[in-house]
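Is this the right way to post structure tokens for a design question? Let me know if I should format differently. Anyway, here goes:
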């Protein structure tokens, strides 16, 4: 599908910084549309809007790899720093065959708003390498990671830009990046990344941070809809780092998880899935498919089940104009980044679905990333109860700010969240001024 809208043209030097162009409905176009709506609501000047619409820095690098068989392959890597006005840039690194510059730009922009919304002193960044990590050995992935980190050079670091895990990467990836950065600077720098192993200065509670944030927000959304008693149900799309944890924590909170999917398929049980048993099955089989405790269903149908909460925790664009009208969940809690296109957002809102935006719902990860970074700066570790208490408090405060704003203004939660976040970044720009 295409749409016509004013979009910023990076590098445009014309007096009018926005031109009308026809673009595909991509994550980058969605991010720009969300910003444009917030800019209109906040009555930002053309210059203020233009500064926020353009990434501060972008880097594209070649990442050569010597394969285990001695041959050489070359991949493309990216790092985009959207904004650093409120602090060092912060954002994940993903290894995926679908990574491209526009995707990374959108994710970096969303990170800016996410950090501002939960009031952590970071700007937004994102990075990635266009590679299918399942097709390469562990030693090959280490060499790709280290070469990618080396190519980024001074672009990253604890006071500049702090990577974290994302799709296709994990704590081991972060350990390799930390070591590469540290070797280049001649000193151990645990604050160079977050999401690293506990033994290297990682934070307790980091593994479940995004999932816990999703769960806290889902429960607040259920309460806002008056669903505090009786049976409550959820469907979770994605059973990776975020989805698996969210399914487990929702179940532990008394919500029946009736369907779960991954990239291979989906399973469903109206009585509620035994999530620990499903987790054990996935550990053995590598997929939810074939789980004997539930019936197989088409993965697309999971999004259309009549549940209280639908948690899309997989990839961008899962809810789109082709399926949004068939969503029967009362609440959508965006565990993934950008899982709802702008067109789908409009349909869901018209149909009375409460959509909790990604920059609020999945912000638990960056909150605990900030806690990890703060602990690294102090060379001190907090206990897990302290980490989780602080995380719950930060998520509750953010929900109150967004939901209260939506109630007062009559706007959607996404519009309210974007307004809060963008206004905080604009205020920081105003206070710092424009140099020179």
């Amino acid at each position: 599908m295409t749409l016509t809208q004013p979009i910023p043209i990076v590098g445009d030097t014309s007096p009018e910084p926005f031109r009308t162009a026809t673009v595909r409905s991509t994550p980058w176009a969605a991010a720009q549309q969300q910003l444009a709506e917030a800019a209109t609501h906040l009555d930002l000047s053309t210059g203020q809007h233009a500064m926020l619409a353009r990434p501060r820095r972008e880097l594209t690098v070649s990442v050569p790899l010597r394969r285990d068989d001695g041959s050489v392959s070359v991949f493309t890597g990216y790092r985009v720093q959207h904004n650093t006005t409120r602090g060092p840039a912060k954002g994940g690194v993903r290894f995926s065959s679908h990574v491209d510059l526009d995707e990374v730009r959108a994710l970096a922009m969303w990170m800016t708003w996410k950090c501002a919304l939960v009031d952590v002193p970071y700007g937004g960044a994102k990075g990635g390498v266009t590679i299918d990590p399942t097709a390469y050995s562990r030693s090959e992935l280490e060499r790709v990671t280290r070469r990618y980190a080396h190519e980024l050079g001074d672009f990253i670091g604890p006071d500049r830009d702090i990577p974290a895990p994302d799709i296709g990467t994990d704590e081991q990836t972060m350990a390799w990046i930390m070591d590469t950065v540290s070797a280049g600077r001649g000193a151990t720098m645990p604050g160079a990344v977050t999401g690293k192993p506990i033994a290297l200065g990682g934070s307790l509670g980091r593994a479940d941070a995004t999932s816990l944030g999703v769960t806290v927000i889902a429960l607040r959304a259920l309460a806002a809809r008056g669903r505090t008693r009786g049976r409550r149900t959820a469907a979770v799309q994605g059973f990776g780092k975020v989805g698996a944890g969210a399914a487990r924590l929702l179940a532990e909170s008394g919500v029946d998880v009736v369907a779960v999917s991954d990239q291979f398929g989906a399973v469903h049980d109206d009585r509620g899935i035994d999530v620990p048993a499903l987790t054990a099955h996935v550990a053995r089989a590598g997929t939810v498919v074939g789980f004997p405790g539930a019936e197989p269903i088409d993965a697309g149908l999971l999004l259309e089940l009549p549940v209280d909460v639908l948690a899309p925790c997989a990839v961008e664009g899962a809810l789109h104009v082709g399926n949004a009208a068939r969503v029967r969940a009362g609440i959508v809690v965006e565990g993934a980044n950008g899982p709802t296109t702008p067109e789908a957002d409009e349909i869901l809102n018209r149909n009375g679905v409460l959509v909790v935006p990604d920059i609020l719902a999945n912000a638990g990860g960056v909150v605990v990333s900030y806690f990890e970074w703060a602990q690294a700066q102090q060379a001190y570790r907090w206990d897990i109860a302290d980490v989780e208490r602080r995380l719950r408090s930060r998520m509750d405060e953010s929900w109150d700010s967004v939901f209260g704003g939506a109630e007062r203004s009559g706007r959607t939660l996404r519009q309210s969240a974007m307004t809060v976040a963008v206004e905080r970044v604009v205020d920081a720009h105003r206070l710092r001024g424009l140099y020179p």
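Format looks fine. Someone answered above. Worth noting: DSSP finds 14 helices and 14 strands in the chain. The first helix runs from residue 27 to 42.
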